[in-house]
Amino acid sequence: MPLCLKINKKHGEQTRRILIENNLLNKDYKITSEGDYLYLPIKDVDEEILKSILNIEFELVDKELKKKEIIKKPSFREIISKKYRKEIDEGLISLSYDVVGDLVILQISDEIDEKTRKEIGELAYKLIPCKGVFRRKSEVKGEFRVRELEHLAGENRTLTIHKENGYRLYVDIAKVYFSPRLSGERARIMKKVTLDDVVVDMFAGVGPFSIACRNAKKIYAIDINPHAIELLKKNIKLNKLEHKIVPILSDVREVDVKGNRVIMNLPKYAHEFVDKALDIVEEGGVIHYYTIGKDFDDAIKLFEKKCDCEVLEKRIVKSYAPREYILALDFKINKK
Ligand SMILES: C[S@@+](CC[C@H](N)C(=O)[O-])C[C@H]1O[C@@H](n2cnc3c(N)ncnc32)[C@H](O)[C@@H]1O
To answer: Which residue has the CA at smallest separation from atom 12 of ligand 1?
Structure first.
């Protein structure tokens, strides 16, 4: 029986949208109405998180709902979930994967032997439209936030061109950080940018946030990884933004720039850079802060200790670990 959110019908459309934006709607079941109430199937999530993103009265209930019937040819996920059920249940093989350009990145543990890893790679190569298949060999690590990869099938090349939100990006999955799962977040920021904005992208990588801010007056894109800046320069050309984006290869702590919209996409360590972000942002400006947490409280306390600010928007970007999330908070900085 799926976990459901029971809400008054009048909040239906808005709530459905927020659940989809936060990747919390359980799409295996149909949304059902009874009397004045709607039952929306949801994924396992803390009640506190739901309270803070929904802002309406709701109940959490277990309810029998109809399953969605979809007839289609078997996918990579369906095939491996039958063939490797035990390993999936033990958490050694994941059903989720990333597609970056024409490359696929699978999540298979080191504990799975090499022959089986290659076999799964070949299945992915056949069933997911792509040119090459890799596996995550490590977590993202180090200052550059890059992960080690193992080639499993198809072309053994790590440079690709990824498309999202109407722009294109050169990405080298072995040399720079890039997550296609943040495209929705970049689309959200894109909608907020105005022609008068001066954006400072403190941890720019190959520039997806900077390029998403293409409507701004000027964008300073900073990164400490030389490979990221090299690709960022190619991406600026590819998207014809030479007149707007200034690439800067440096530790952001050494850079002296100012802006009214500051992007801090370094979730694991962003808390160490809040003073620098406050130094960069103009009063009345906005800091887009990304962090890891179980809820939004720590981030809000941290900012409130350092300045007079208000939270304009907060949302779960994606899950990070069981009951831990990558969180996005937009802080308006009233007074430093
Ligand atoms: C999580 S990645 C985000 C990249 C990019 N914003 C994206 O969405 O693909 C963080 C980036 O911050 C860079 N970085 C880490 N420490 C830095 C520092 N002190 N100064 C500048 N860049 C830094 C890393 O090289 C990495 O590219």
So the answer is: 203
